[in-house]
């Protein structure tokens, strides 16, 4: 019974952090970052705001969800350290989850109170993604270790593919950072045509808002080609491990959805639903990639 509750808590925590990521995107894309003024943890000097503006309630709701999620993260971390004492992966990720959720909250607080540069604001989104994927991995491990009919994900891939997943994950994080940087430098509509950049193959100046968007596009294209190549190799070399190809196919699918939603952002002049879909798809893609990375880092177990 208690193991079942632990599994439910692990999945619920990962899901609530996904909601936090999407609500953070909602705050950014509705101009609600200062909906509570420069006050934190109060909102316009009040515990519960009386203002009726949408921006205030969006920001306030985001803070409430972050607070609730932080409590879940702490409870889950303590429970894991007690229940899964022998599972080093779980204990490390549990400690990391507490650090990341508070780092995420601190970056959000500092942006409100002191204001931050575009670099730091983009980093805030990156930390939010790490927080989600960290807890997604916790949920996977908890299910592996506590469900009586679940097998541990150790496919027996070679060391070279493990390093491929490591470098692919690092590169993906950098690509996502460039996307967040584009958004926080107001460069999303610096080039409204696709695949051209204001009618040209290359931007007039690379260090410009159009240049930032161009760099992000090229980086995203390389990422898509990299994932496709990895899927082809895994499909050919690891036919006996269909779960590996399935995870990669799903990752590629969400990556393509994310790219398509990026085009929609341009076509709809940054309609809110396209911006939220853009954040959702990249978050799910990164989560799947982190599961693949975790499997890749287990290569020694399968020797």
Whole-number total of structural domains: 2
Give the low-pLDDT segments.
Answer: none
User: Could you describe the largest sheet, including whether it forms a barrel?
Assistant: none
Q: DSSP strand (E) fraction?
A: under 5%
Q: Order of helices and strands, N to C?
A: HHHHHHHH
State the helical fraction: over 70%
- CA radius of gyration is 20 Å
How many DSSP E strands?
0
How many helices does DSSP assign?
8
- Structural class determined from secondary elements: mainly alpha
Question: Mean pLDDT, nearest integer?
Answer: 84
First and last CA, distance? 35 Å
C-alpha geometry = flat
Molecular structure report:
The protein has 303 residues and is mainly α. It folds into 2 domains: 1-152, no CATH class; 154-303, no CATH class. Helix content is 72%, strand content 0%. The protein is built from 8 helices and no strands. It has helices spanning 2-29, 54-83, 88-113, 118-146, 159-184, 209-237, 242-267, 272-296. The radius of gyration is 20 Å and the shape is flat. The mean pLDDT is 84.
């Amino acid at each position: 019974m208690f193991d079942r509750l632990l599994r439910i808590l692990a999945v619920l925590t990962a899901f609530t952090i996904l909601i936090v990521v999407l609500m953070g995107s909602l705050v950014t894309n509705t101009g609600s970052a200062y909906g509570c003024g420069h006050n934190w943890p109060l909102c316009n000097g009040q515990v519960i705001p009386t203002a009726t503006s949408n921006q205030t309630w969006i920001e306030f709701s985001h803070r409430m969800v972050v607070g609730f999620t932080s409590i879940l993260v702490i409870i889950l971390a303590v429970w894991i350290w007690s229940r899964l004492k022998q599972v080093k992966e779980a204990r490390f990720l549990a400690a990391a989850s507490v650090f990341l959720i508070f780092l995420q909250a601190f970056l959000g607080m500092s942006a409100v109170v002191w204001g931050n540069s575009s670099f730091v604001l983009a980093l805030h989104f990156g930390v939010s993604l790490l927080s989600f994927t960290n807890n997604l991995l916790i949920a996977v491990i908890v299910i592996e270790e506590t469900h009586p009919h679940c097998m541990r994900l150790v496919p027996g891939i070679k060391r070279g593919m493990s390093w491929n997943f490591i470098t692919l994950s690092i590169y993906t994080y950098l690509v996502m950072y460039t996307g967040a940087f584009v958004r926080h430098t107001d460069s999303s509509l610096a080039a409204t045509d696709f695949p051209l950049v204001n009618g040209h193959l290359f931007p007039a100046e690379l260090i410009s808002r159009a240049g930032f968007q161009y760099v992000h596009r090229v980086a995203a294209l390389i990422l898509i080609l990299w994932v496709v190549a990895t899927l082809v190799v895994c499909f050919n070399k690891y036919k006996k491990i269909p779960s590996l190809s399935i995870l990669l196919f799903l990752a590629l699918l969400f990556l393509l959805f994310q790219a398509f939603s990026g085009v929609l952002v341009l076509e709809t002049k940054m309609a809110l639903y396209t911006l939220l879909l853009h954040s959702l798809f990249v978050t799910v893609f990164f989560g799947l990639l982190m599961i693949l990375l975790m499997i890749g880092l287990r290569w020694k177990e399968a020797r």
